[in-house]
Amino acid sequence: MNSNEKFLVYDDDVPEQAEAAWDKLADWYSARKRGSYEFKMQLPAILNLLGNLRGKSLIDIGCGPGAYSVDFAKRGANVLGVDISRKMLDKARNNAKMKNIPLTLQKADAHSLPYKDDSFDVAILIFMILNSKTIEEAARVLKHGGLLLVSDTHPTLEAKGHWESEKTSAPRIIEDYFSQTKRKWQIRHSPGRIITLKYYTHTIEQCFNMISEAGFEILRIVEPKPGRDVKKSDPVHYDRCSRIPYFIIYLAQKHM
Ligand SMILES: C[S@@+](CC[C@H](N)C(=O)[O-])C[C@H]1O[C@@H](n2cnc3c(N)ncnc32)[C@H](O)[C@@H]1O
User: Fold this and answer.
1) Which ligand 1 atom lies nearest to the CA of residue 33?
2) Which stretches of the chain drop beneath a pLDDT of 50?
3) Which helix (H) or strand (E) holds 188?
4) How many angstroms is it from 169 CA to the middle of ligand 1?
């Protein structure tokens, strides 16, 4: 193994760096995704917000291993999953094949989507880089009246802070909510290999305004809570997520 390969640092906002990082993280990410507490908490809330998807054209931007995309397709949507990482798209292809679900998958950069204006009924951004360019691109490819769903880590959890102790019941101390600057996510994706991913976080005010300024009306905000399935599979996160918001979902509609 190349000694430089042990500790790699990438910037998620730079498409070439995101591609290199997520190609390396694809095995790790797709293996942990489906059974994860985050998936169990988000999926029901997301499906509930989106309502009837039958016959809708849906673009899942930064679809990763396609965990959510297959559920949108199961609900009758015609799903196009796009991602900058070929390895992630391979995972999504395998996932769809195993479940016998039709998905169209394409490699594309969320900052400049190769699709015409007004093409889709629904656009999805789940745990994707959020900046004005990615939201504006989602707005451009959506039809007027189309729905945008953004689901991300909750800004209070991203805020500068720490857990008071290792205990499951420990309070979360927020030191500075407003300093949502560049974060470093250290990911031990395989033994001895660590990737550091740098990414920007935003306050709720910033997210709300970014979505609104791109031409949307925000219809709903949801802060999902864990259900019994999480209590069983991941009691630590069940306890913490029952007290502290881990995720936030915005449902918005492009102006008519
Ligand atoms: C944290 S993963 C989320 C995957 C999926 N949405 C999920 O929640 O399971 C972020 C995904 O965004 C993709 N990505 C990062 N930058 C991108 C860009 N500029 N354009 C398209 N996809 C990008 C990555 O390759 C990765 O698959």
Assistant:
1) 9
2) 1
3) strand 182-190
4) 32
